[in-house]
Design a protein that fits this description.
Largest sheet: none
Number of helices: 2
Number of strands: 0
Structural class: mainly alpha
């Protein structure tokens, strides 16, 4: 992801807007972890005895 971000920056003749750049690798990984946690919470919500949060 960081390579793509770098190439997008180099390909523009003007400075690109930060919000239009792809996320950094670290930000992307954190996003995936948050999505996984949310999916686990939703899956456990239908259970009559959901596991306790860690």
């Amino acid at each position: 992801m960081s390579d793509v971000r770098y190439r997008v920056c180099l390909s523009k003749k003007i400075t690109p807007e930060i919000k239009k750049l792809p996320p950094t690798t670290e930000a992307f990984e954190l996003h995936i972890k948050r999505c996984h946690l949310q999916a686990c919470i939703w899956k456990a919500a239908a259970s009559p005895f959901p596991p306790p949060p860690n």
